[in-house]
Amino acid sequence: MFGRKSKFEIKTPDQFLLMRKAGLVVADVLARMQVEAVPGVTTDQLDRIAREMLQAAGAESSFLGYFGYPSVICASVNEEVVHAIPNPRPLQDGDILSVDFGAIVEGWNGDAAVTIEIGTAIEKQTALSKTTELSMWAGLAKAAAGNRLSDISHAVEKTIRNAGPYGILEEYGGHGIGTKMHMDPLVPNYGEPGHGPELVVGMALAIEPMATLGSRHVRTLEDDWTVVTTDGSRAAHWEHTVAITEEGPWVLTAHDGGAAYFQAHGIPSPAAKFAV
Ligand code: MF3
Ligand code: CO
Fold first, then answer.
1. How far is the CA of 189 from the centre of ligand 1 (A)?
2. Residue 83 CA, ligand 1 centroid: distance in Å
3. Residue 55 belongs to what domain range?
4. 8 Å CB contact between 39 and 119
């Protein structure tokens, strides 16, 4: 149909370069979190480090003040799935922690999350985290022009279902991102392929699967933020921001842009050109 405008925020290549700056701040902070998060450290301390890195980079927080959110990271431990506020409780050996972080550079957002095992790895948790991470990559690989939105959702779901009897959250999912952290479209982590809007060059999406060792059901604590599993089962959460470019997906919040994964899987991508 001629004259049709996209319902979504369409970025120019220059705007993607600004989003890349934000993405690299996020990548640096999350890499640092993976080093610092050890038994005895508190999530308050991790938040402090992230604040210092933001300031040093001359970037702003996507999270601080967002609907009144008080911190720059979300730090969700064990049965906390997402959106947990940092606190003074020391991390313990065997905990599983998700750190979610967003940065703004020149008005453009980047958003990503990693799951970290604290101290001793526990086989079941490692498998859950690995599966959730791989499901995110399967989704990122589908972030290509001409695909439909639910092709991403389906790739995420299939990867998790094929790996084991994990719970997949339905109340939360990925989202469009750009001049705001949360924009249309929502990106569910389940669904049949071939549905929803067509993906076009210039869209940017945050893809963020959340999976549990038990049921998919969650509730929000009295702090109005922390999302926990209702059965107390532990959870994992991974997230990256991806740009849909002429040449394929470019993962703005990964240092290598996704080059390693995309090359290994034969997926066209401009990532290698921009790897740092
Ligand atoms: N990255 C998170 C998400 O997309 C946002 C955290 S909510 C905030 O769900 F309030 F902490 F910003
Ligand atoms: Co997000």
1. 16
2. 6
3. 13-274
4. yes
Q: Is residue 5 part of a domain?
A: no
Q: What is the model's pTM?
A: 0.97
Supply the CATH number for residue 67's domain: 3.90.230.10
How does pLDDT run across 65-89, given as a tens digit for each residue? Answer: 999 999 999 999 999 999 999 999 9
Evaluate whether residue 8 is within a structural domain: no
2 lies in a domain? no
Is 252 within 8 Å of 110 (Cβ atoms)? Answer: yes
Enumerate residues with CB within 5 Å of ligand 2 (an ion).
Answer: 111, 206
Count of domains observed in the chain: 1
Any alpha helices (H) in the chain, and if so which ranges?
13-36, 43-57, 123-141, 149-163, 259-264, 271-274
Whole-number pLDDT of residue 2: 54
Which protein residue has the closest C-alpha to ligand 1 atom 2?
A: 100
Burial 40-61 (b: 16+ CB within 10 A, else e): eeebbbbbebbbebbeebebbb
Counting beta carbons within 10 angstroms of the beta carbon of residue 67, is it exposed (0 to 12), middle (13 to 18) or buried (19 or more)? exposed
Residue 6 lies in a domain: no
Q: 13 vs 69, 136, 203, 243, 259, CA distance in Å?
A: 31, 24, 11, 10, 18
